[in-house]
Amino acid sequence: MTKKRTITPWWIFIVCCFISMIGFGLIVNTIGLFFGPISQEFHVGRASVALMTTLQNAAAAISLLFAGKVMKKVNLRWLLTACFSIIAISMLTLAAAHSLTHFYIAWIIIGICQPIAITLSIPVLLSNWFNQKLGTVMGISLGLSAFGGTIFNPIIADIITKFGWRGGFIAEGLLIGLILMPLAASIRPNPDEKHPAYGTTTKSESNSLLNGITLKEALHQPVFYALAFAMLALQFVSGSVQHISGHITNLGISPVLAASVVSGVMIGAAVGKISIGYFLDKLSTILVLLVYSLFGILGWSGQIFLTNSTLLTISAFILGLGQGVCLVALPYLIQKQFGEKDYSNILSVINMLGAFAMSLSVYLVGLFFDQTHSYNLGWTINVIAYILSFIAIFITLRKKA
């Protein structure tokens, strides 16, 4: 196999790393920086401003219903390029916004494009191009989303301080437009005889039809419902992470130390996503799921029982490790269980359930706190979510085997 034939999968991997780092890092992880300045300029409450992210998440969840089908029918190179173009333009128009309605419309449009551009593109492209080392490359690329948030939060915050929130949106729009649009236009969506997937060993293998089953066939398998339940339960857990800083300050710990606990979650999530992908390629799937589920259980239990800031930060790092189950292991397992044939469609349907669960969890965990004056009920639900999701996957995988 020539060098020309082997370099394409790794270029796809590099593109996916940038999509994760810039896409998640900007669109998902920095939006909170804009709430205060926009609230002050328009003289409205932060809830009114934050509504744009609620609408974004709702639009993304609905978009996931048909995103997988669209990705199968339209050339991914041009589809991703178009989505990033629309997102970049939407960001840039916000620099001229003079009403909250403009924000709501722009973020709904971004939400519609987001599943194709960011959520599904990474696992779908990597699944197409890696017959081997899929867990490793998926873990590394998705793990960079946390590093993206770490890098871009101080950069965007500094831009907002110097040039206002309008300058912040211009910066984000330009970064997406000037980096992700060209990268999307550079990809080759699917392998072929000249450019085989990594791990393809024979000519006939590179020419073969995609293996696997359709969504309709997957719906008849118990493992589909186990994976869907796990995605729903663990995305609920992911959504509740937004309340950790509130939990820490509610314990009487300073906001500065609360921020360090949140950083512990982000660092743990990055390490968890990268490491779980590697171990999924090397070790027993059940063993890896057990270990990382235990991380989730121990980490969230620590948030219930611990009160020392140092121990809470360690606990946060451990629960961050556990996030690798939801963010890497489940997309990996979906591909391994159902194959490539209808992967984007199956993944989009299961992700849709997770998107709704995540949007609900932010509200519900806040409601639990209002009723009990503690976040412990929410954290207990998170522990149960890890236990039940592991049991469901363990039982169905054994039956399938």
TrEMBL record:
The keyword Zinc-finger does not apply. InterPro entries: MFS, MFS_dom, MFS_trans_sf, Proton-linked_MCT. SUPFAM superfamilies: MFS general substrate transporter (SSF103473). Coiled coil: none annotated. It comes from the Bacteria. The chain crosses the membrane at residues 12-35, 47-66, 78-98, 104-125, 137-157, 163-185, 223-245, 251-271, 283-306, 312-334, 346-369, 375-397. Its main location: membrane. It is found in: Cell membrane. Pfam families: MFS_1. Residues 13-400 form the Major facilitator superfamily (MFS) profile domain. It is a multi-pass membrane protein. Keywords: Membrane, Transmembrane, Transmembrane helix, Transport. PANTHER family: MONOCARBOXYLATE MFS PERMEASE (PTHR11360:SF290), MONOCARBOXYLATE TRANSPORTER (PTHR11360). This is MFS transporter. It comes from Lactobacillus kitasatonis.
